[in-house]
What we know:
Strand order of the largest sheet: 13-14-15-16-17-18-19
CATH class of the largest domain: Alpha Beta
Largest sheet: 7 strands, mixed
Shape: globular
Oligomer: single chain
CATH topology of the largest domain: Metallo-beta-lactamase, Chain A
Amino acid sequence: MFFAFLFFLIGLLSAIYSPFLLLIDIPLSFYLVFYKKKPRLLFFIFFSFLSFALIYFYPKEGKFSQDYALVIENRDTYVILLTIKGRYLYYPEYPLPLFSIIKLNGISESITSYHYQENFSFKDYLITKGVFSEFIGDKIDIFISPFKNDNLERYLFQYLDKPSIDIISSLLFSSSLYGSDIYPYLNKLNLFSFFTIGGLHISFFFNLISKFIPRRKRKLFLICKIIFLIIFLFLSGFKYTLRRLFLKEVINLIDYDKKRINSLNKTSLTALILLFLEPYSLLSPSFYYPFPLVFFLSLFPKKRTRSEFVLLVSFFFLPLSLIDSYQYNLLTPLLQFFILPLTNILFLLSLLLFILPPIGILISQIIGVIIQGSDLLASNSPILISGLPSLFILLTFYVLFVLSFICSTYNLKREKNILLVSSILVISSSFLPDYFPHYEVTFIDVGQGDSTLIRYKRFNILIDTGGDLHNDLANECLIPYFHKRKIEKIDYCLITHLDYDHYGALNELKEKFEVKNIYYPYDFDNLEDNTLDISGLKIKDLNNYNISNETNYQSNVFYFSIKETSFLITGDAPKEIEELIIQDNFLDIDILKVGHHGSKTSTSPLFLDAITPQEAVISVGENNIYSFPNNEVLNLLTERNIKIRRTDLEGSITFKL
């Protein structure tokens, strides 16, 4: 069963990323034939092509006028619908409970969502659910499901304060903690996953109860476990983690008397069934976080103490943690050692709320202490910046890590210790400072706004910061991106003009990140030839025309060259400024940052003909209310064979020089 899962997994990966990944089947096939002596090779290869076909023929769009749909996931503002033609996102006028049935009358469209660098991608999240389209139209209610938690939540939470409601709701109903005040602290300490319902809490509860169950009652206890999981499946809205646990317990029950399936094959069968039903869940953290660990524990079974288990989990997930946050909190292993039993206790107390709601007073006190401690530790704990680890480092770490446990299995203690230390040294190399010179320009995706990062030698220059009234771009976009690139400071921050979408994130950025020098538009008037010289990089403001006090007319227009590649950053300068610039300057531009996000107030035909750019970058938010970029501007660029690059379509755009 394990090899069937491996072949199935290879088929999925090849269909999602590249068909060439099917070539991995070849060495795996040789291993099975010549080492494992397994004759049923075609049976295993069939799983690869089955999973490949699942993705290839998966319904990604379905144009329809009428259809019946089942609500298979519901959230505060949206639901996911299952129809014969596929799965769809839908925004109902009022909440639709889980398993409601409705009749649709309308059309489906591709999903668009607001995005910026490093933020949560709602579109990518929906893909992990197998959802590629949004239904738009009318509906008729056929059956409104009675599965609602509103009254139950009011009963359970009547003695809890707001932060406690957030956490207990996450532990019982799998509600999101992203909007909670405590989330930033938990996330910074890498403790977020401990405060949402998962396998660790359920397993702790079952293990605790099993100590009081006689051996002759174990099958009955297994049935009770399944009933318990069914209840929590409904409470959590059929959370993926609970579906995994439920399916594995069902397999345990089926195999209870025969004992033919070992732990590894049970895990393989569970994963195989889940991926067959929801192939795109392979891309979800709900799959790629727990399953590798469960497989690892099945391959290397051993009775471990709590400290050994916590340490194993910390090191096993360390690379994934670095991929997610580009940093590591040195207190994390110690905190996880103490927080795991504490959250297990909170889970047990939350279960008592069903029969004794006043216990919420005690729960609030415990959570209050956790919040205060998390706030204190998050503010003072030592953090190492790793950047985004390379694929080579990640693969090397896991190869050495697995080999160390193989050596442990064969009692090769010396070899095991050498490999384990080597794996730690390999992943630790991610924390080495980046002292190498860089020559690159990145147009950062900040949604509807502008921000350009120049890396020149060992200097980091930021032109504009972007700005969003509804999102903290400094902490949610810029700083995480700087950490991803191992950037520890901004040497120069240049603001083209004082429109919020160009400088709105500056104050937060200054508070949370080192910004050494800030130049506002008028500061360039005091520089010789309106030019800032940074170790040979000459950034010149070409807009020295004071023809209007309107901010766009005051916008800096920056010209600079790096390694014979010339850039022009036009801010929001209008056509009048563009035409004055080409009258006074001879410019041959390679990369143009199109003015005013592609508005027709900028980028005149005369301007383009004069500067002759090879590529044009448009910094713009997806599906923005201004309908930027304007079709007239796009046509002008296309007519001149200028390659168009857009942050709303590509995300951040980098030119390595």
